[in-house]
Amino acid sequence: MKKNIVCKFGGSSVEDAVQIEKVRKIVDDSPSRKYIVVSAPGREKKYNIKITDHLFNIATSGKHLRTNRKKIGTKESKDAVLNKFKSLMKDLKIPDNGLLEDLNKDLQSDLTGEKKIAFLASRGEHYNAKLIAEYFNQKEMPTEALMPEEIGLNVCDNILSAKVDSSTKENLAKIKNKKKKIIIPGYYGMTSSGDVAVLSRGGSDLTGGELAASLDASVYENWTDTDGIYEADPRLIDEADVVPRLTYKEIRLLSAKGFNVFHFDAMMNCKKQGVPINIRNTNKSSAPGTLILSERVPEEDVVGIARLDNMAFIYLEKDMLGETVGFTKDLLTIFKKYEINTYHYPTDKDDISIIVNQDDIQGKINDLRSEIEDCIEPDHMEVRYNISILSPVGLGIKDNPMVLADAATVLCEKNINIEMLDQSPAQICFHIGVQQTHADSAYKALYERLILKQN
Ligand code: ASP
Description:
The chain is α/β, with parallel strands linked by helices and 455 residues long.
């Protein structure tokens, strides 16, 4: 039997009537696009703030946007949300069907505390799903909006950053084989006590991933406003192209190192179930985007180069350090105590460097240093700031030692010193530390030598 496609449309894809019409055309384009997950409308015009943030603001009596240094009160946020939905209804020519009245009622909810925050935060997705279903029906595309409370999209744990409950998979599988198109709001589910709980921010990706895995979809299309995953940061490298295919492992290495993609947990389900993910651009629907797969035969050695700026090395030297069993554990325990994430730690007989984000050690570095002095008693310790880490990633690196040689050669030709070199254990990525002042030219040189040259 033909498998269905699950499509998720993010906030910018559903933020106004023009975008929603693009979504309709995309869905209409393929009978397999049967299951659609939608975010809340993205930004509203007046304050250029996401609808979900306005909803958080209403629920927290203006605190949410005050902490972001914007002075937008509850009343302004309420108006922004209502006006957004009002103009969507008007522009999509949806007759008054009580949706605005229901939304207005929900915004006056007498819930309190976290239950109120979760409930209000979910309303953007809730009403957008209803509204878009209405629009599709009006355009003669038979559609049913199904709410998490109707289909058993159950969640557990923290009500403001909930996890999908294991019972959900079975429940979602039951909505297979529906005749109509199905629209489901992303980002929220129901707790066992019947309360609305929201997933973490950007959580519509998670709803889509959960649905795709439960229905064993042929593909999970994640529609957004970029063309896909880029080989390098396109703000820094003009020629950077979209990567057509890459594996979960490759994207993980690229994303963890500074590539902004979509919600990671969303991928795990799809990976387990073997559902490929296709990142597509709603504004350029003919472009194939990036396909994320479990496996691929590498046609190229390097698929992308990630870059992390503002990194620091904490360098320690001590005679016989490497002979002390458990010294790495003692050292890393100190970083754990200060809640500092460690990225790499190249080690040798008598020295070690711990690589961290320099923002993470701000205000903590003196205490951290003295605790390291007391515990490890190094002969020498220094902190080196303003380092960039450049990380070429690709399955083909493993079998081609020339990639590393080429990287070193091109940096040498540009007179750029390598401050740190660390190869990933899977050998499909390596990390080069350079002074941040040289990072732009190093990044460009690596891109040209490792990616452009191989095409
Ligand atoms: N609307 C929610 C947010 O802004 C969830 C989502 O868009 O995926 O985080």
